[in-house]
Batch of 3 targets.
Target 1
Amino acid sequence: MRSLWNDKEAKACGKDLLKMRVYTSRLLGAEEDLVLHGGGNTSVKIKEKNIFGETEEILYVKGSGWDLATIEAPGFAPLKLGALYKLAELDTLSDMDMVKYQRMALTNPAAPNPSVEAILHGIIPYTFVDHTHADAVVVITNTAKGKARIVEIFGKNMLIIPYVMPGFILAKTIFEMTRGIDWESLDGMILLNHGVFTFDHDAQVSYEKMIDIVSQAEKYLKQAGAKEAKASKNAHVDARLLASIRKEVSDLWGMPVLSKLDHSLAAVGFSSLPNIKSVSNRGPLTPDHIIRTKRTPVFFTKDPQKNLVDFNSSYSGYFDKYNSGEQKLDPAPRWGIIPKMGTVSFGPTSKHVRIIEDITRHTKKAIVQAEKLGGWKTLGQKDLFEMEYWSLEQNKLKKAGAAKPMQGRIALVTGAASGIGKACVEQLVKQGAVVAALDINPTILEAFPQNEVLPLQCDVTKEKQLLRCIEEIIVQFGGLDMLISNAGIFPKSARIEDMKEELWDKSMEINVTSHQRLLQMCVPYLALGFNSAVVIMGSKNVPAPGPGASAYSVAKAALTQLGRVAALELGENGIRVNVLHPNAVYDTSIWTDEVLKARAKHYGMSVKAYKTNNVLKVEVTSKDVADMAVAMLGPVFSKVTGAQVPIDGGNDRVI
């Protein structure tokens, strides 16, 4: 591990200690092997004058919920240092009282809740204090001879702290251990099974002490031959199994969730370890990960339902053994192992899944490294249970906002690069869904910056491309719940007697056959989905065709008939199929300003009058169509299938 310190950037902080604290905190947060997703904490002690002109020593410590990688000055909670010293001298202090009295010590009542380690930061007699959960150090402590190895690597100048619960108990333990100690003699502190503390009056020195300690641990692991196990090739992906797993996990969780397969060479190598079931059942990398990952992953075979029954039973036994009045959390796993295929992460949103994936990626590497050092050994179940059900940790999870209507649901939209398709993707994301956005146009790959969208370039008339895309959707999201079959073309006008064969064939291939192929491929996954529904994008030309548009009108009529038959066939699987008939949607790529002006002139109208030439005299936009399509996928239409709905402002010919 190398130092990221930059003299020019540091100099820009001037003499502002809080700015310097933000700067070096971000340096720590930039390295995933030090902290992940809100882990770790930092502080700085600053002398300030209060409103009465009195000089006070204030501890600025990372606030709960802030991430070191992105923290700003408002993310540090300012507390009176003297009050923290008094708290450290108490014999006992409950968690709730600790939170209460720490808030009472704040000099700014609008500040975030201080870190649970605020008291510990306060008693360390240095200006800057850094705390990380450095992987390399924790790996070494998570072995049978962990403490002895730490002594071997770092010598007598490293204070070694046995594992105790974070918060007041940890602060009190260190307060007692360091009475009369010469702090100048210490290079830092290592908390077994937990992490590392460094400190100094100089921000750069404290930061680089952390880098040096972790580098020594990494060097030790390298010399011991402790490295990741990697497969020689990627494993075959069983998409049906993945969709079944996602379905069963969602049922256990009590709501639709997403899942993501990691089938990298490292993940496949990990899942292929001969003792994988045993070694993965010993606990997480650090105790603070347990609120995200639970104590263990679920081990999958070809019968995910039975695997999850077993996991539920095991979790219930673990809870019954250690609970002392706590409310049982949901028993669903947060990650799983599929032997010789990789690992899979679960969560209600793409953000949750990404966090689990990041944590488990580090965990898998750590397990393999520890096995090379004689065996992976974590904290006992009782300690882990206390951490999982620690009220202060559970409060972090409770801060999540209300779920969006389509949270955890997975959609596929074709023709998604522009117009109606693009608007459908945007509306689905707004409602909380994740979306696979398909289009033949390569601009699809840059069309959506959101993590919730999987952009895929695909020619929907090519069966192999469709199969590849559907497999990628299952790998990335776990299944499929919703389909908006929207891709299509509007051929040039041609009377029947003048119709060229290739024009007719192309319209049929894209506007009908590709939809049938896609629906056929999606049905097995929709059958395993949640509130599964399909919206087929028809056209006003079905009920009210016009001359010169037979290639388009006939194709859309056939597509509508496909939707009607699909509704009849798929209803027994709980899959709804409805058809939407838009008309005169002019904010799409085919309707340029020039084309609109020409068409309006042809009818002797202004552009505005032409765009609102319907019964209601309103303009119909892509967003209007998308809103209706997404509504048809939702609960309002939960008992509707086989319907055809016009969205055209009212067309007198259709009416």
Target 2
Amino acid sequence: MKRWAGGALGMSARAKNALRKRARIAVVSGVAFVAALVTFVLIPRRATRVATAVEARIPDRPDSQPTLNARIAALATIASSDSLLALTRREVAQALAQSIDTLPFYLIPRRDSLTARVAVLSRLIERAQSAPLPSAYRALGSSPEIRSAPIVQSLLDSLATIERERETFGALGGADPLAIALSARANAIGRSLVAIAVSSRNELRGALQPLLPPRAPPVAATMTADTMAVHVQRNEAIGILNAANARLVEIRGRNQEIDRMAAQARQIANVDAPPWAMLASALVIALALGFAVSLLVEVRNPHIADVREAEQTAGTRVLTVVDPREQIVERARRQSDVEAPPLIDVVSDTYRNLYLHLSSLDAPVNAVTITGDDMDIASTVAVNVASIAAYEARSTLVIDGDPVTCGVAGALRIPPDPGLTAVLAEQVALSDAVVFTTIGRDQMLAVIPSGKRMGRPTASAVKKVKEDLQRMSSRYDMIVFTAPLAQTKQDPTTVQPSADVILCARMARTPLRELSSAVETLRGAGMRVHGLVLWNTESPRLRTRDELLAAAKKPPREAALEPVG
């Protein structure tokens, strides 16, 4: 079998056929819809039960307030102990410093005075050096430590004179050379005052040096302070603090575990949704699953999707495509059209094209066999081709070779017996089995129905029927024979009127594999396949044998008007 074309065209054909299988999609989608709804209903209930069970296992959170209070109290105790120990150390250090001072008491005031004078002079010098301004220089020169020097008063007078002259320039004298020179002179006087102050400070430090205590004091006096109780209290507070920290770490871990369990319970319980959302989700899932299953089945066993694919698979052309019939109101006004079998279509070009193909060949086909995987379809096509030939004023004979379905009799609404099987059983003559029926107003159609199933015919009976058909072919312009695929072959056991055959297949119903196999089988049996007829509508509803026999017992008019069973 030629493989169906892959790629976009092949997948498009498979998707088209998958959508045509509405019954399969409906069944799968219905089951999936019910399963999805049940799942959407059961899962939230089960999740609620599980979440409730998880919440029931969540322990209470431990109370960390006592531990925090103990930790705060321990920190306060440690801070108090550290403060008390620091105060004790400072007092001991002061007492120790006082205990090693060996300077005579009458020299201590002089040492303190020199120390204060050095501190004041150092502060003024540092101010004059960090801020070289006339005010700083004037404060330094006015200090008692250097004011007594004769040169200092002269320098202060000169500095005052320079300041008065500098003030005459105002704020705009910054760029005047004379103002710049005055500023430089003032700075020089200030540096002189600083040098005099530094010299005086050095003299004071020299006088203070002998009064300072020695660097390596002899034996320092000792002072005892009992801090054992404070240390014991501090160590106990440190132990309480460490225990409180460890307890807080444990509580924090338990709280994290409780938070994790609570989050898990919320996540399990968070599966509910509104009813419309569940219905929409179930519908979407059902439709998607139904289409997916139908597409998967179609991909595994592809069927005919279009004319191109059928011709590519069978290696022969498509002669016509039977689409749904259009109801023509004008055709229902005449009594002959009302009483005609509903499956007869002589108005559209569907079967006319097929008949014209057979009659317009270089060697017109006077006898053709129509077969297929669905004998109801093959019988309908055969009856319509014969009806078109009858409308073309050609004498036509239709032979039904399938006693299982009695398709020709069911399509034309004629009695199925006696038929071809009775002729093969040598119960009746071939001419006696011919039934004439009216198509339209006055077009007559000769029909040999199939008859009921009998035993296997003998070779002599088959040969005799073939000879009779050969003689009857001279009286008919067209013979249409219909038979199952298994019986369509050039063989001594069959009564095929000719080797010409037309194969019927159903769109989206006939697998490509079976179509290719049927064409190869027919050609292997010596048949000439003229082309395909694709059936692209609902299956024809033919009357069964029982319905035909029951209708035969009714009046002709009532039987003709009875709807198709």
Target 3
Amino acid sequence: MAAIAGNEPHPPLFYLLAKLWQLLAGEREVAFRLLPLAFSVLAVPLGSRVAHQLAGPASGLLTALLLAVHPWQVWHAQDARMYSQAATLGLATILAALRLDEQPTNGRRLLGFTVVALLAALSHYTVLPLLALVSGVWLLRHRLSRRWLASQAVLWGTSGGWLLVNAPLLGRYSGNGDQPPFLEAVRRAAVAFASGRSGAPEWATLAGVVGLLLGLLGAIVLVRRAGLPALLVVGVVPLTVILEWAASLRGPLFNESYLLIAGGPAVVMVASGIARLGRWLGPPVLAGCLAVALLALSNYWFDPAYAKAADWRSEARAVAQGARPTDLVILNYPDPTFEFYYRGAAPVRLLPANVPFRREALSRELAELTARYDRVWLVPVRAANWDSDGFVERWLDVHTRLVATASWTQVRLVLYETARGVLARARPLAATFDHVLLHAAALEPTSCPAPCSLTLHLIWSARQPVATSYKVFVHALDEQGSVVAQSDAVPADWQRPTTSWQPDELVLDAHTLVLPHPGRYQVIAGLYQEQHGRLQTTTGQDAVAVGEVSVR
């Protein structure tokens, strides 16, 4: 529980159930996804029963049909998160409250309502407005009783207690949504209620407007038929949207997934509106709603642009197949999905491990890790609430050698070789310039057709802090000793001046030369200062031969 409260800004029930289910069913992906799927399927009869009780059998049947094919329900049915659980338990809470409203003195019904509502509150904080709405309707319709007050004390005491436990993390939580204007938030909510998150822009907004009109008609039907109890359905939809938008005023918190608690009630309203249209107008409108659902589902199932989640499975498989025990995998965002799929030999580290983070400390940690491993696999995620400016990726770009990049749906993978990795395959040199040591050089390729583009990697270190900013020169000499190609720059493409080197830190420095004509060339390297010329090695040389290349 302490681990959940310290690392996850949501209530704990889903994680506890997921852990129990994992112990029973194993760690297979299919088994793990059965839990949210079960909740999503359960929403169909629960929503149908709520609609039946408030508006009659026709509304109940239409609600079941629309919920069964609703793109939003299907989307979250495959999401190993708490959203479908919270939405389903929210519907169960409404149904339990309606049953209790019929017999307000029935102790068993009160106990059932308390248990279901408590489970819902411990699933997601967006359930709390629904509980407040239930309390308000009860106060307007019934007298207070000791049993009811005890039920409320259990619900709000437990929810409030967890909020206090979770408060430090919630205070730091910066959100994973955005901050839309109010009308845009209403539009997006209407689109989500109509076609989920896979409706195409060409028709999703229109479907949302039609759904909104049907929902308003359904709200009138529900209030006329059921009276005040209908507010448990009619009221929770606008209340959830307004509160979610209001919360986004303090940070990027508006996220359609947080509206799912109102998804079931919204479908009940739409179904009640369709039922009110009658036998002539109702069927074609229903057919249109089903067509919208099928179009959105086809996007979700067959178009990668509408994929719900990143293709972590393919990325984890690629790393597992290519990683060596001397490699390191770095995640710069605390998403556990990669590690769920990953079965490779290389260890995995989260950097930064916490936020906010100190850049100097993270730089030192990255330097220590790259000094211990030959290669680094980076899974870069740009998130506003973690490594927002890509500091880890930018650090690796400067301090290591980019080997390869790859991408899948919504995810990227970058492979770097460290100075240690280059050193393991490089030509040893051990040439000393003042307090700077040139350890080794790796020249690639050593034979190629003209024009030949070659890359030289030099491995440097400083025995003590260097007060002077030296430049590196790399020259390609023909058989007569003439310079035919050269590179002169501050180390690491002007990113690592010698004054920034830490004692004994391995510095990887890359240079590219282009040799236009066939022949044999010698490549030399060294250090110089613009005002005073080249530095000499301890053996009296002003350059070191680092390799030869044959151009055909």
